[in-house]
Amino acid sequence: MSFRSQANSAERSLSQSAAEFEPGNRFVSRAQIPTINPWIIALVVTMGTFMEVLDTSIANVALPHIAGSLSASRDESTWVLTTYLVANAIILPISGWISSMIGRRNFYLGSVVLFTIFSACCGLAPTLGALVVFRVLQGLAGGGLQPSVQAILADTFPGEKRGMAMAVYTVAILCAPVLGPTLGGWITDNYSWRWIFYINIPVGVLCAFFTRIVLHDPPHLTAAREVRRGKRLQIDGVGLGLISLGLASLEIVLDKGQELDWFGSTFICWAAGIAVVALIGAVFWELHVNNPVVNLRLLKERNFFMCCAIVLGVYTALYATTFLLPQFMQELMGYDATTAGIAVSPAGLATMVEVPIVGWLLSRGMDARRIIFVGILTMTVGTWWLSLGNLQMAESDLIWPRVVQVMGLGMTTVPLSTIMFRFLPTEQSSNAAGIYALVRNEGGSIGIAIASTFLQRMEQTHQSYIGASMSSSTILQAARAATSGVGADVMDKAHAGLALIYAQLQRQASLMAYMDQYKLFAYLMFALLPLVFFLKRPPRTTGKIELDAH
């Protein structure tokens, strides 16, 4: 059957379902589900998500080239990253509300089209100011793709197959950040930084074309829109404004805090104050308004709240170690950027093999909580393993701990994505996915902020401790030994020796700071284990499809 005939059949099925569906029904018969193969839908929508997540990291290594090409400083060029993350943070929590207003299909299709257009604009940007503006628009356009895909998969697949569907989605969101720096570095070195944006165009066109054919709104969204038809549109303007202002300010604080000396900067103090006031106001407002733009009441459901808490901690540790590892390899081990990127890529390949196995285990009825527990424990082991390194270790001593860590991540995120919907009403799946995606992304921003701040602070601390433990006679003896055989006078040899000793002291202090960071995030992962025991066991699937039980 062709795509077009399948789409026509699905449209007839949806029109019948919309008339029969009543929000709150527990079960939906199989006759109401679109006849398009759900795996086609999964592959199409995941394509767009992969493209969007890739753009969160692909520009990192190109910043020096962007700064040089557009006559800007390196600090100014970092706004290319910050503004994209800020725009993402604003759109993520409200994506569910937008989907309910205009339809999930229209929202997803519009997001893909606009993301593709603004990607082309980023590549054509003549100045840094224009590039920053287009990155904001690109982030706003693409920010809703991640939660939309999760909601689409949750509504498309029955409970017994949802694990495999989330596995496909997880491969995309885990592999894209891993491939981003490596791909971005290769494109920038061999072509131009503008091509890191141009490569989105063919992917976006294909995704938009197939999305228009295969994707349709589920019955509960179609019915809800029919109920609202003809009524006055109610927009939670206050909530929308507070959330946008609060999240934008918070993202700026997290991304620029270390660079601007945190609360030693007046700008950061103002941004932090605005973030606190706006977000507290948003919470109180959203909990008391009748039609909130973000339904925070969903967090009252224990399973969903615990899934959000776990994923916050997991992505804090993941992004922190992802930030630290390439930096450690380049600064202390002497790897170039491309080699460092290639060295961490086996973790992504291992995940592509492992994640479908996890999805298959879930589809066979294995308790998701057990898989999550083992996954967090595996991440803890991999992160702790990284903390046992030294300056003489081989490349494989970095690759294998990272492989173990990321495989633990796959065992954690797939079942989390599967069970977080299970005890929520079907009509809230888009709102839940938006909150979950926001928490995941903010976890990444928090992790990078903690890692960059503590790394610098701990390097200074270790340098002080090591220097204090060395006597002047010991330093002079080491200096003479370091320059023995060098043809120079005594004073020159002493100065050269002291320089060598200080350089070695800095390297050792940096090594200890990196190792302490890995231990810190290993402790964080271990602290997440008790939260698994608060998760509720998902109901066993039956012959009917439990759409609002997911």
Relevant terms:
Growth Hormone, Chain: A; 75% helix; 0% strand; 550 residues; mainly alpha
What's this entry about, in short?
With 550 residues, the chain is mainly alpha-helical. The chain is 75% helix and 0% strand.
Protein model, in words:
- It is a single chain.
- This protein has 21 helices and no strands.
- The protein has 550 residues and is mainly α.
- The chain has one domain: Growth Hormone, Chain: A.
- The longest helix has 43 residues, at 490-532.
- The radius of gyration is 25 Å and the shape is globular.
- The two termini are 30 Å apart.
- The model is unreliable at 1-34 and 541-550 (pLDDT under 50).
Helix % is: over 70%
Count of domain modules: 1
Please identify, by name, the CATH architecture: Up-down Bundle
Query: How many extended strands?
Result: 0
Helix and strand topology:
Layout (H helix, E strand, L loop, with lengths): L2 H18 L17 H17 L8 H7 L4 H4 L1 H24 L1 H21 L3 H15 L2 H12 L5 H29 L4 H4 L1 H15 L4 H10 L8 H20 L9 H23 L13 H30 L5 H27 L4 H19 L9 H24 L9 H40 L3 H11 L7 H43 L18
Helix pairs in contact: 1-12, 2-8, 2-9, 2-11, 5-6, 5-7, 5-8, 5-13, 5-19, 6-7, 6-8, 6-11, 8-9, 8-19, 9-16, 9-18, 13-14, 13-19, 15-16, 15-18, 15-19, 15-21, 16-18, 17-18, 17-21, 19-21, 20-21
